[in-house]
Specification:
Layout: H1 2-21, H2 23-43, H3 48-71, H4 87-123, H5 136-165
Helix pairs in contact: 1-3, 1-5, 2-3, 3-5, 4-5
């Protein structure tokens, strides 16, 4: 079990690094959006490339932060029922859902997105919009995002199994910038 926990910590470290630093792309997307709007209104100049760059930056944040969100247990969850369940039952539900729902979906999307990306890269696919950007970076983000999400799912499964078997204590409550997502969970205010 220790070898799996080492793997889990390594995955968590990569996810945490990417998730923490990806936030700068939000600033970049807002800057591009504001700059594009100002130039369009002030000088009546517009560019599809700037608009597509804004979409690409937002897509990068969305795809690459999904694994970090899973790690921090900050995903949207309706806990009207789960807040009434015992912790062990919630852990079992999380484990089963990760294995039965998240793993197959992420694996299928990894499998489908890689050739999708390779074909775009090999063909030098460009945006159909005049003056638009090349397309393969956005397709790479789909593959990278689901690969990272799948890896984080493996880490979460390892941790749930370790907790359920008594090999480790419950991992500490995850917070994002001092905010505990369990305090504002949809449906009740009790964490998962």
């Amino acid at each position: 079990m220790q070898g799996f926990l080492v793997l889990s910590r390594a995955i968590d470290a990569v996810t945490r690094f990417i998730g923490y630093h990806i936030r700068w792309l939000i600033l970049a997307a807002v800057t591009v959006s504001a700059g594009n709007a100002i130039i369009r209104k002030a000088f009546d100049i517009s560019s599809n490339a700037w608009l597509e760059l804004q979409w690409l930056l937002f897509g990068a944040v969305f795809m690459l932060a999904a694994a970090y969100t899973l790690q921090r247990n900050a995903h949207v969850r309706i806990d009207v029922i789960s807040s009434r369940l015992r912790k062990r039952t919630r852990d079992i539900i999380d484990l089963v859902c990760h294995l039965v729902m998240l793993a197959p979906i992420a694996a299928i999307l990894i499998y489908l997105s890689f050739p999708f990306f390779l074909e775009s890269l090999a063909s030098g696919e460009n945006s159909p919009n005049a003056g638009g950007l090349i397309v393969w970076p956005s397709k790479l983000l789909i593959f990278a995002g689901f690969t990272l999400l799948f890896a984080q799912m493996i880490s979460e499964v390892i941790k749930r199994v370790a907790v359920l078997s008594g090999a480790i204590a419950e991992p500490e409550t995850q917070t994002i910038h001092g905010h505990d997502p369990k305090e504002t969970a949809v449906g009740g205010g009790h964490g998962q």
